[in-house]
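Module 6 notes. Inverse folding takes a fixed backbone as the condition and produces residue identities as the prediction. Think of it as a translation problem where the source language is geometry and the target language is the twenty amino acids. Below is one complete input and output pair. Work through it position by position during the lab.
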């Protein structure tokens, strides 16, 4: 242990704490750990590896370094930007290229089980080089169904059980295989207007939602009856002039 401590001779002795333990790394190779007292490195520890050649009693220092311990404060693991990207991160002016081997896309000329894909095969060379693959469609469908416009959304759960999008007059089905489970809301008063919703999604703006009709009350016009006006005498305040008296001179000459 003392020999291992000598491997930290370049470190200020005040920053070297107690011996924390030793770990065997292999045959005649061990690593000693010492507490680290450097400011800002709480939970880190000095590590010194020592070894001994066969049939020798002399211990040799291999290397020394500073390593984080189980409770050390460390930066989060680096994640490639492709994996860090989340829905909604794309902003104005940003570009998000798709890789050539993106499993969500398939060449437009490849045969598909989706009639909608077959309908766009003729567009090859006119801009639709790739279209959604089966895996891409399933991934999108699952994401939509589990999102805020699926059956488990709070607004859908709170809506009447009969107020489902599939029976709403404002519901417009998607084309292709997606039409079986999804459509677009066309009700301008609904919170999901112009959004893709599941067929079993729902809200209070359903076209067939019926509520008790309240009879309207017409506002009657205001009528003034002059014959019922009562004359009231008003006492004159100090300085008031009766209309029968002559006008006072103003002194303008």
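Target side of the pair, the amino acids:
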């Amino acid at each position: 242990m003392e020999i291992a401590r000598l491997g930290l001779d370049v470190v200020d002795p005040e920053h070297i704490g107690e011996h924390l333990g030793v770990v065997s790394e292999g045959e005649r190779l061990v690593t000693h750990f010492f507490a680290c007292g450097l400011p800002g490195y709480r939970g880190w520890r000095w590590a010194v590896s020592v070894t001994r050649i066969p049939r020798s009693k002399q211990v040799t220092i291999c290397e020394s370094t500073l390593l984080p311990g189980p409770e050390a404060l460390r930066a989060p693991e680096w994640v490639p930007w492709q994996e860090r990207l989340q829905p909604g991160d794309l902003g104005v002016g940003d570009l998000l290229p798709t890789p050539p081997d993106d499993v969500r896309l398939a060449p437009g000329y490849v045969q598909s089980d989706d009639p909608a894909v077959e309908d766009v095969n003729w567009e090859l060379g006119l801009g639709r080089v790739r279209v959604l693959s089966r895996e891409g469609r399933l991934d999108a469908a699952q994401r939509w169904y589990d999102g805020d416009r699926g059956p488990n959304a709070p607004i859908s759960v709170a809506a009447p059980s009969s107020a489902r999008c599939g029976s709403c007059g404002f519901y417009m089905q998607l084309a292709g295989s997606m039409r079986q489970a999804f459509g677009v809301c066309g009700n301008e008063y609904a919170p999901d207007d112009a959004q893709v919703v599941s067929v079993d999604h729902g809200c209070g703006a359903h076209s067939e939602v019926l509520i008790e009709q309240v009879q309207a009350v017409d506002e009657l016009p205001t009528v003034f009856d002059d014959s019922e006006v009562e004359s009231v005498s008003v006492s004159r305040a100090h300085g008031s002039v009766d209309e029968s008296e002559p006008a006072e001179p103003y002194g303008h000459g």
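Reference fact for the lab report: The chain has five helices and nine strands.
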